[in-house]
Specification:
The protein is of the alpha/beta class. Helix content is 44%, strand content 13%. The protein has two domains: 8-128 and 288-303, Rossmann fold; 130-282, 3-Layer(aba) Sandwich (Rossmann fold). Helix 1 packs across helix 12 and helix 6 runs parallel beside helix 7 (187-199). Bound molecules: phosphoric acid mono(formamide)ester and norvaline (NVA).
């Protein structure tokens, strides 16, 4: 049976830990894996912009002995109305895997339903699992252990926040989601992780108060205030979220050992100050690098 990579909730903690362990091995000895996907091709459908996801998947496939095929928003007959189901069935006759970044999460679920090759979610309006798993890999490197850490996510509880919630619950981290009214995490996402969080005694705290939310956090995480597709709401969002910017004061509330994370791209002086993102506690470029190693592990796990 083919396996897709669409949401972290589709996997057990052990399966995800296996992917992290493989990612660590790939990072340490990339040459051992240089033929792991020899002769295989990953189609990469992008209906939104990307720097990290696009380059890391394409380079990752190359380093594994295969190749990535970039398919932009205007490249496929999808843009002229060909159905997702026909596209999925046809692409499966040519490709060994499909990565897709798009707007509607249900399009990814549909693609996975009709494709007979693995489908990897490279971000939807709902979630961003590759990012969150790479972030957990980064935290394991920095802290040595994951269980019991506290992550405070501050700002718009968007697609990145949803996958972080899922990741924290899978790996035993407590999480505070700090957002004003109107920007809180979806009920659907909370529901999807509630039972597992409860059974593991993990705190999943929703608060509007930044000081309360970040207090005692090992990790302070934020993301842009207007995600791709929300450009028209940008001015309103800047106003609504202005009090949720991560600056030196917020990092002091978290404590001296707290690290700062951001999936990037970042807007300095909006969701984060330069002093924080360019400061000594920032691990944003380690996060970005680990996208490559982690996604290579995901592709080997699914496509070999
Ligand atoms: N973090 C992330 O997914 O970046 P890109 O949008 O550049 O791919
Ligand atoms: N929340 C952002 C993440 C970009 C990687 C967006 O969807 O635009």
């Amino acid at each position: 049976m083919k396996k897709d990579f669409i949401a972290l909730t589709d996997f057990s903690s052990d399966e995800l830990t296996g992917m992290l362990d493989l990612a660590d091995r790939i990072k340490q000895s990339p040459q051992e894996f240089d033929s792991a996907l020899k002769g295989k091709t990953l189609g990469m459908i992008f209906n939104k912009k990307s720097t990290r996801t696009r380059i890391s998947f394409q380079v990752g496939m190359f380093q594994l002995g295969g190749m990535g095929l970039f398919l932009g928003p205007e490249d496929l007959q999808l843009a002229r109305g060909e159905t997702i189901s026909d596209t999925g069935k046809v692409l499966s006759r040519f490709l060994d895997g499909i990565m897709i970044r798009t707007f509607s999460h249900s399009d990814v679920l549909d693609l996975a339903k009709y494709a007979t090759v693995p489908v990897i979610n490279g971000l939807t309006d709902f979630n961003h699992p590759c990012q969150a798993l790479a972030d957990i890999m980064t935290l394991r490197e920095k802290f040595g252990t994951l269980e019991g850490l506290k992550l405070a996510y501050v700002g718009d509880s968007n697609n990145v926040a949803v996958s972080l919630l899922f990741a924290c619950v899978k790996f035993g981290l407590h999480i505070s989601l700090v957002s004003p009214k109107g920007y809180t995490i979806t009920k659907e996402a909370l529901e999807m992780s509630r039972e597992e969080a409860g059974s593991k005694n993990l705190n999943v705290v929703l608060t509007e108060n930044v000081q309360e939310g970040v207090s005692g956090a090992d990790v302070v995480y934020t993301d842009v205030w207007a995600s791709m597709g929300q450009e028209e709401e940008r001015q309103q969002r800047l106003k609504d979220l202005a009090a949720y910017s991560i600056n030196d004061q917020v990092m002091r509330w978290a404590g001296p050992k707290a690290v700062f994370m951001h999936c990037l791209p970042a807007h300095r002086s909006e969701e984060v100050s330069s002093s924080v993102i360019d400061g000594p506690g920032s691990i944003v470029f380690d996060q970005a690098e680990n996208r490559l190693h982690l996604q290579k592990a995901v592709m080997v796990s699914l496509m070999q």
